[in-house]
Write a structure and sequence with these properties.
The complex is a heterodimer of chains A (about 110) and B (about 110). Chain A has about 110 residues and is mainly beta. Chain A has strands at about 5, 10-15, 20-25, 30-35, 45-50, 55, 65-70, 75-80, 90-95, 105, 110. In chain A, a hairpin with a 6-residue loop joins strand 7 and strand 8 (about 75-80). In chain A, the strands form 2 sheets. In chain A, strands 2, 4, 5, 6, 9, 10 and 11 form a 7-stranded mixed sheet that branches. Chain A has a 4-stranded antiparallel sheet with strand order 1-3-8-7, with no helix packed on it. Chain B has strands at about 5, 10-15, 20-25, 30-40, 45-50, 55-60, 60-65, 70-75, 85-90, 100-105, 105-110. In chain B, a hairpin with a 3-residue loop joins strand 7 and strand 8. The chains are: A mainly beta (about 110), B mainly beta (about 110). Chains A and B meet through strand 5, strand 9 and strand 10 of A and strand 4, strand 5, strand 9 and strand 10 of B.
């Protein structure tokens, strides 16, 4: 399967704990994106990488959120001191160049209890 | 502020009953309009990209059209397997944000047998 892979698929954590999600994009895609989706809403942009450089972070990303893409390959999204409001589906997508449709992964469903 | 509005929020059809979903947008400098299908618990699946007014694209029972202010997704003789949430997203031409997608909230389509 050469699609976008996300791990884990589901994560339940207690409030205040740290969590980390991983995304493996399609290998020839140089652009990687993180989006967040809550129930009944469309995905919202969080951050964008071109190769290993993080070029934009949404104001939705508080300082508790950090994302990395070492060597322009896989990416991780870490949330520190989780809050109930962080409960959502976290989607990763990748693309090659601009003006092309993204390929999304299946997402990581985070539940903070 | 750039906006993407989808209507209706939910649509219930009988198998074989054709209909259309609407996506209206108020943005300055549209680069592309994207349609995605999303099944419960999964990431969005790319369907179409439209770039200019008058453009049309088709795939099986789906046909997407674009005007200067809105896009329609026409579903001809739908089947129960077409049941999903259909998401519309826009990508802008403007300088530094020409990679971001801004999504609408989606239309939940249910096709009854």
């Amino acid at each position: 399967d050469t699609g976008v892979s996300q791990d884990p698929r589901h994560k339940i954590t207690k409030r205040g704990q740290n969590v980390t999600f991983r995304c493996d994009p399609i290998s020839e895609h140089n652009r990687l994106y993180w989006y967040r989706q809550t129930l009944g809403q469309g995905p919202e942009f969080l951050t964008y990488f071109q190769n290993e450089a993080q070029l934009e972070k949404s104001r939705l990303l508080s300082d508790r959120f950090s994302a990395e893409r070492p060597k322009g390959s896989f990416s991780t999204l870490e949330i520190q001191r989780t809050e109930q409001g962080d409960s959502a589906m976290y989607l990763c997508a990748s693309s090659f160049g601009q003006g092309h449709g993204y390929t999304f992964g299946s997402g990581t469903r985070l539940t903070v209890v | 502020e750039d906006q993407v509005t989808q209507s209706p929020e939910a649509l219930r059809l009988q198998e074989g009953e054709s209909s259309s979903l609407n996506c209206s947008y108020t943005v300055s400098g549209l680069r592309g309009l994207f349609w995605y299908r999303q099944d419960p618990g999964k990431g969005p699946e790319f369907l179409f990209t439209l770039y200019s007014a008058g453009e049309e694209k088709e795939k099986e029972r789906l046909k997407a059209t674009l005007t200067k202010k809105e896009s329609f997704l026409h579903i001809t003789a739908p089947k129960p397997e077409d049941s999903a949430t259909y998401l519309c997203a826009v990508q802008l031409n403007s300088g530094g944000s020409n990679y971001k997608l801004t999504f609408g909230k989606g239309t939940l389509l249910t096709v009854n047998p």
